[in-house]
Amino acid sequence: MEFPILSVMILLPLAAGALLLLLPGDEAGKASTARWIALGTTLVELILGIVLWLGFDTGSSAFQYRETVPLFEPFFSWELGIDGISLVLIALSVFLMPICILASWESVKVRVPEYMAAFLLMEALMIGVFAATELFLFYVMFEGGLIPMYLIIGIWGGQNRIYASYKFFLYTLLGSVLMLLAMMYMVSVAGTADIPTLMSYDFAESAQVWLWLAFFASFAVKMPMWPVHTWLPDAHVQAPTAGSVILAGVLLKMGGYGFIRFSLPMFPDASVDLMWLIFGLSMVAVVYTSLVALAQADMKKLIAYSSVAHMAFVTVGLFGFNQQALEGSIVVMLSHGLVSGALFLCVGVVYDRLHTREIAAYGGVANVMPRYAIFFMLFAMASVGLPGTSGFVGEFLVMLGAFQASTWAVFIVCTGIILAAAYMLFLYRRVAFGTITNPAVEAMRDLTAREYACLVPMAVVVLWMGVAPNIFIDPVRAPVADIVARLDAAGAPQQQVELVAAPGTTAETVPGASR
Amino acid sequence: MQSLTGTLMQPLSESLSIAAPELVLALGAMTLLMIGVFRGTRSFVGLSWGAVVIYVIAGLSLLGDASSAFAFGGLYVADDYSAFLKVLIFVAAAACTVTAIPYLRRARSDKFEYPVIIMLAALGMSMMVSAADFLALYVGLELQSLAAYVLAAFHRNEARSSEAGLKYFVLGALASGILLYGISLVYGFTGTTSFTILAPLMSAEPSIGLIFGLVFIFAGLAFKISAVPFHMWTPDVYQGAPTPVSMFFASAPKAAAMGLLVRVAMEAFGGLADQWHQIIAFAAVASMILGAVGAIGQSSIKRLLAYSSINNIGFALIGLAASTPEGVSAVLFYMAVYLAMTIGSFLVVLSLRDTAGRPIDDIAGLAGLSRTRPGLAAALAIFMFSLAGIPPLLGFFPKFSVFLAAVEAEMYVLAVIGVVTSVVGAYYYLRVVKLAYFDEPTGEILPQESNVNGTVLAVAAIFCSPIGLLLIGPIGRAADQAALAMLSF
Asked: How large is the ipTM?
């Protein structure tokens, strides 16, 4: 038998988390041990993730590393496997986790073992969501994530944490239970809960619309799409820094992953029919939330609203129904995971020093923290989508692809990029530049070694993805091609992008064109 | 399976051996009573443990011949279905007996009658789930109910306990009357009270009188499982009765009455499923909504758990409304997990005492529990998330199986209402977790006083935690087998 690497990746953090809860000793000793155990575990997970990627056959759209243990029959069974889309998202999760642990190293002071255990539990469940190939196992993992996140926000969150934790929990739960019923229907009709099989199963067209809507209820909330996004700013603002990183970095991707894994391949007819709904909501979302972001006085809230706008790019791309748009969506997801995570870390860095997220309290930070200002600048630019950063690649591909589906949608969505530049630059000017008005800012130290350890890997990957995105796109190419073929069969508007490579345009920046 | 007519000539000894569990309980209860009478209150602890031994013996007597068998001229049936429920009843009764010891001692209510009355109630419940005839059903139900009335008023010096007992008695007697009236109508229009003889008579066009009888019977049974609109007694009785007694009411009798209702509906009135389906579906929806909404404003933990039990019964009824083997199996599975969650939650309540040693019933008393008693808080969180039905905790799976049964029976509206109310319900369960974990402690909470309670609590918590998932396969299969045994008539 092969080494069950996926099971190990899920069970290792669980075991470590349980261990943390049972640590003996006094408060301070436990806290320090818990930090090191958590960091060690997440680093081992990262190494396992790299091993996973190296052993992955990127040319194939088939699910790999498959494991089947009929452990929980007759309810569900333990079936794991990944394709390229799962692979890149698992990689994102294991990459962000050690950084989250480092980010909470000093800022979390109370109940440290419990905090670290909750994060390890989150990691296990996130990997489980992306690796599950059994419908109900996916659901268990998907919903299970609510409990640790509820506790993280509620126990270690800010002022208004209780309201935010309730809102987060109940909003996402309501979305998900409808999806659960849809899953039950699918299993009772198709007679199998195996996701790869269901991905090629043809449901009746009338049923597809209902099923699609039920899944939409769940994924739209998770994503989040306008108008069900209101839990996000609350949850983001109230969560501790690392909680925000995980929320923005990985949890939001579950919505996008859900669309691409379930809605598109399983209900292609309904997806084509309801494209207008997604485009409409996404267009509103981009413009509205960007404008709202412009008016925020709280740094975390601003980034939270920008997340909603970026996620709208993802949905537009997903429902552009062609290779470029779908690949672009996945890149936007990855890039947003890194960039918004990094921006939350940047906010965390200054928050740890000044204990306020009010933009007005800062100003002139670049004078006292020049190195910090460089990183903050890089991530702000990546969020805007400056060429050379990861943000550009994804957004460009999305618009290129979606342009074939709807020029109007792309026209509106494009304004989002301009607005993003406006709010990010405005934020950066107010925080980093200008003269120091707040005397407390004067005393702020520049980055510590620990903060470098968080930000440098992020910066490297953001630039890497911006300059050579193919490494990140290669694994998803084959599965996306399968989905596009299924959507074409369902009557998606045929569009073959005939992009003639102009002089100076390389296949690096326009991967779809090279096919 | 032997035929019904064959049982009429059956020798008494054979009947008695088929009904061995009940025989053990009846003799055991009488023995305990005699010991108690001669030795007095000081035998309370010994009798309680003696009762556990008797439950174990009664449980062991369930082993052996697995096939269905009638006894006492077709009044009584022993099959996998009744065996499954009896295991639940005995486990719950045993747990309620021993975990009550510290509480009753402190309240100076440590009378030797307590384990005896619980055992008589268990005997009644055991009869209920094995009844194959309306008369046996009624006798079992009354035995259980009479024992329960006494238990509700067990703190006889306390006005609230006496009030609970009286309320329970008056309403319970009314419900029994309604049930008996229904039985008499059914008998009058069909000429029999036996489930097996009734079943084939149900396929024809039913007469109005029969429908009336059916409705009365269902109303009487709905009272016993406290389904809306016959739930009014539940919060008052749970709050007024001593906490261990409330724990008992919320656990074993619910499982027994649910088992009884399912047997009556599926076995005796299986042919009239179209008629009773609406009653059950309405009761399910109304219980889910009222249970979820009613709990929100409660400040007493016991009242909260009372509404929670109403809510849970609503979910379990969805499985019956599906009226398929999968649905019946889902109900059984639901009750098994429900018992663990309920007993666990009540045990947490039993463990809550302020520095003066008084029990805490105000929900605000839970504030900061995770700081003062981390283990207890973790158990409470497991039970609450489990009751809310959040995976990967065990409480998700019974809900999952009833909804799956409903979807397979194409009852989509019922399923959608069910999942939406489960979200409403999640709100008040979350509130308990919030108090225990997010709020600062307001007062000291004394440590667990009894290792036995601690152990039972830990077992229940581990069962409801994700570790319990390893057991869902065996329990689910046992429930499937039980459902098929009952439906093979």
From this structure: 0.88
